[in-house]
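Self-study notes.
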Amino acid sequence: MKYPFKPLSMFAQETSSCLHQQPEVDFYIAPNGSDSWSGKLPVPCGNDGPFRTLQRARDAVRELKHRKRNDIRVQIRGGIYRLEETVVFTVEDSGEGAQKIIYEAYPDEIPVFTSDREITGWHKTSDDLPGLPAEARGHVYEAETQGHFYTLYDNQGRLRRARSKGFIPLEGGTHETLHFPNGWLKAWPNLEDVEIVIHPYHAWILNILPLVTVDEEAAVARVRYPATYPMNELRYLRDTPSCWVENALEYLDEPGKWVLDSRRRKVYLWPRDGKKPEHVYAPSLIEYIRVEGLNDLHNGGDDIPVRNLCFRGLCFKHGDSYRVSEADAGLQHDWNFLDKATALFHLRGARDIVIEGCRFMDSGGDGLRADLYAQSIHIRNNRFEHLGGLGILLCGYGAGTK
C-alpha cells in the first residue's frame, strides 16, 4: 500500500537527536510508539517516545485537563493505524470552557486510520469448483478467511463483488418475497452470503437484502428483512432491469471480482492483473471514531453534548458497509437509517466540533454523520471519495421532540 507519509526509517534517523516536545504540542502518536511511554516526544528516544494509539492519547488528555486550562494539542505522525475497535470520545473528553482539544496530523505527514487486515495464503482454485464459470477457470485464487465482510480492497481501491446482470422482477412480489424469471436465482450452497440488490417498485430507492430461501421450481425467493416497497417491476420504468444478485460464485466472471463463502471460510478472487494476489485487505469495522454525548432519547430532557474537539488532517479508509437489521428505522424512504453506526466518523450528541482537512475514502459506508444533538459542527475542506454510502449525513431529533 502506498501512502504519502514519512517512512518509519526516517523516524529512526531522528531518534539520535532525541527531539523534545514542541512547546505547543502536549502529546504525540506514532506507529512506532508505545502506550507505555510518556507521549511527550515525537520520535522514540531511549525508553521514551510517542504513544502508539489514539485511545492512549485520549486518556492522557483526560488527565492533563485537570492541570491545564489552555488548549491541548495532540499530533499524530504519518503512517498506518489499524483499529480493532471504535475509538469513542465522551463528555469526559470535552474541552472545558473555551479550551479546545485538538487531534491533528503532524506537519507535512498523513496519518491513515484503517480497520483492514491483509488476506494472505492465496493459491489457485480448482477448476472443478462447483458453480465456477467456464471463463473464470484457471484465473481464480482462493484464501482462508474468517467472519463476514461486504467490501474488499487492493492497492487500487475497492474490488467489485461478483454480481449478475440486472433482471425485471415478475408480478406477485411482496415486501418479503421476490418472484423472479426462471434461472436467475438458485439455492446456492452459500445462500446466507448471497444478497439481492433491488429498486423495489420505485427507481429512487435501493435495498440490499440477504436471502433466506430460494424455491427454484416456483421461482420465488424470500428475504430476511422486508423491502421498503413490494418487490415488483418499476412503477414508471417497467422495461428497466431493477434487481440483481451479488456474491454468488457463478457471477465471478471478470477480473477484479470476488466472492465470500463464509460457510467454507473462503474468499475467491479473480485478480485485476491475473497475477497471484498481493496486498488484498478485508475490513473489520464500519465506524472508526464516535463522539458520543449523554443523549436523553425518550424523556425530552436536556442532552449533554461532547464539546470543543478538533480533528484535522486525518485519513480514514477501508471501512465496511452497514447491513440492515430487524430493529432498524429507515429515514424517509429508507435511504439510510436512524441513529445507526453507518459512517467512518460518527457524531452522536456533539457541539462545537471541528472536522477539517480530513479524507474519507475507499469505504463501503458513509463518510461522516451527525445524529441527535448536533450544533455548531464545522465540517471544512474535507475530501469524500469512493464511498459506498453518503458523504455527510445530518439527522437530528424529529421536529418538536426537543
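Second protein, same conventions, sequence then structure:
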Amino acid sequence: MQNFIKYRSVTDVYADQVVQDYFQSDEKEKLKSLVLFNILTQNFGPIPTSFPSYFKEYFEKTNVLPEWADFKKIRIAERIFATYGPQILMILCCKSLPMAYTCGNGAEVLVHTGRLVEENGSTQKVFRRLMETTQFVVSVLQEGGLSQGGEGIRVAQKVRLMHASIRHFIIESGRWKEEWGKPINQQDMAGTLQSFSSLILEGLMLSGITLSEEEKNAYIHLWKVVGHILGVIPELSPDNYEDSYTLGLSIFQDQRKESEAGKILAKSLLDFMEYMLPGNLLDGIPLYFLQTYLGKENCEILGLP
C-alpha cells in the first residue's frame, strides 16, 4: 500500500494564500466569512468587482486548462453522463459520498463545518450541501462544462476557494487535532476525486452497465482535469482507470476507520434520502442501495444496519 503520510500535511498553497490575504484585512472576520461563503455557494455568479484584485487574478489564472487536457476524451466522458446521468447521481449518494465518510479523519472536516449534519431534525442544511455537491458534478460533466467559460470550470474554481476558506476557519477554531492531518489535505482531496471518478465507474459496473476501456479512461481523464482546477497534485491523479481505482482503494484502506463523525454523516445522508422519497412505503430502499454499493464492512464502519 502506498505511504500517504506526507500528503496529509500538504494542502493547496495558492488557494490558501488567496484566502489568507482576504482575512488579513481590517474588516470583521465573521462578516467577511459570510460574504465569501455566499459568493462561493452561488455557483454561477461572478465575483463582485469590489473584491480585491487577487481574487480576479486567481480566477484568471485557474481558468486555463492544462496543456494535456484532451477534449476528445472529455467529450466521451460527457456522453457517458448524458447517457447514464441518473445512475451516476444515484451512485454518488449510495457509494461515493458514504465511502468518503468511512475515512474517519476526513469526516471530521464535514462535521466541524456542520454543513452535512442535521439540526433539530431539520434536513435543510443537508439538502443544501448535497444539492451543491450534485450541482458540482452536473456542472463539470454536462456538455461544454469544461469548455472556455463553461460552468464546470467556474464551479470548480469556487469549490477550491471554499476548501481553502474551510481550512482557514477550522485551523483558526483551535478545535482541530494535529493527528488528523491538515484539514482537506492532498490525500483527502485525491480520495474525494476518486470517489467522483473511479468509484462511480465501479458503481456503474455493479449496476450492470458495461463501458469500454476507452470510455473508462476518458471519464478518468475528465476528472483529472477537474482535479487540476481543484489543486490536486499530479502524482495523486493517475491517467487511467486501473491506476486510479488502485489509488482510490489504497486511500480508502489507509484512512478507513470507525468514527462518530462518519456515523453522523451516514445517518444524515440516509435520513435525507428517505425524506426525499414520497410517503413511508419506500423508506427501506435507500438503506438497501447503501448496503448493495458499499458492502458489509463499510456499512458496519458507518453504523448502518
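Instructor comment on the second fold: The chain has a mean pLDDT of 89.
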